[in-house]
Amino acid sequence: MRSPETARMRETHRRGDLVVIANRLPVHRASPESPWETSPGGLVSALMPILRENKGVWIGWAGSSETDCKTFEHDGLYNVPIYLSNEEVRDYYEGFSNSTLWPLYHDACQTPQYERRWWAPYVSINQRFAEYAANEAAPNGHVLIQDYHLQLVPGMLRELRPDVRIGFFLHIPFPPVELFAQLPWRRRLLEGMLGADVVGFQTRHGAQNFVRLVNRYTSHRGSGQAVNVNGRRVLAKEYPISIDFDRIESLANDPKIIEHAKKIRSDLGENRTIMLGVDRLDYTKGIDQRLRAVNEIFHKGNYTVDDLVLVQVSVPSRESVDEYIEVRDRIEKLVGHINGEFGTVGAVPVHYLRRSLPIEELVAYYLAADVMLVTPFRDGMNLVAKEYVASRKTETGVLVLSEFTGSAVELDRAVLVNPHDIDGMAATIETAIGMPRQEQTRRMRSLRQRVRKRTVYTWASDFTHALDAEQPRPSSATMQLPIGTNPPTS
Ligand code: F6P
Fold this sequence. Notes:
By secondary structure, the chain is α/β, with parallel strands linked by helices. It contains 18 helices and 18 strands. 6-O-phosphono-beta-D-fructofuranose binds next to strand 1.
């Protein structure tokens, strides 16, 4: 039930006081006849309370099979679907977003493609999102733009609606000058982002790279966290995203989930050390290198299939992009190779699950796993690492974490690895397997404190407060945070 205070807030807020724009809507459905369901994920759960309190609107693509693009209300939120034709999906989403920007921003761990024919669709789809947002935003409202698909929207929206406050948040890494400089459209993308009042990044490095690039490739000047855009101040700062710690912890306390974890353990063998990997099936995640490191461990002979097992959960993703098909083939060959070489009748070293699992099941796996392997070549943050930590209420278990993830900045008590170094990774995983319980607890306790302290709600609150602080307006125009979401104290 809503408290009277909450009800009052809703009366004083107009639809469109807060607009979120993201490539995807926060809802999905199995077919156009099925009911809408809220999509799982940190961003959606972080923004939902604020959106509900502010009569929020979410603008996004509803998916290829959706052609009926009427606004609808679901779970207290107005959803405004954007239609994309098959050609637009190919050029704007699979092409420019996921074959140019995605590999480039992830340190070019796959060669980025600079196809001129993808640029115009990227511009026109960004314009479409900006126009929808301009229509939906209330006077002096707030618009939060998400991620690399929509980097031009802040500038386009500012042209259309100079009255609104604009926040842009990049969920993936923002690359250093040498890499970004390759982009034929570098200045346009930077100018686009500068349309925002606050440009948020996962790490301080990302924010610093942005200010350096602005100085080098635009006529605007920045220093520290601020850029001066014709007298208007743009804040460029890190806001590391996180998870709903309490929710994950309460799932980890759920007797049914604990029972499920016990069953996983006994199915895999009580005496074996269980290693776990959970990733989107993406070449940035380093799943193939991880498998090579596991292969190396078995080769060295300190452990056999009776001692050790890896469960690798790989969630299918972007399956029409060639590089994703190739990485899946590589991974599946490696799994076959390792199981063929080291498996016995009745026991395999790698269990490979290519599917998406509900969070309840994932938490059961987190509870069962002695060693969590999170080894991307590059990752904006990596919330799986934080979810594992939140699940480990017994303060045992070892997180092996790539030093190239955004989460390694906060989770520096994890066992950090360089995923490009197969021998080093194999040796580090062996150290993790043999880590004494006392040492596990020392590390896990500190990791849990870190994750508990800065949740996804802290992220949303810090980011939206920064937006209000940047351009003070009459008090009626400040965003209403839900009860329990405190302003930042520093
Ligand atoms: O990490 C970036 C991101 O775009 C996420 O926002 C999203 O959950 C994930 O990649 C998968 O993206 P897609 O929408 O391409 O399936």
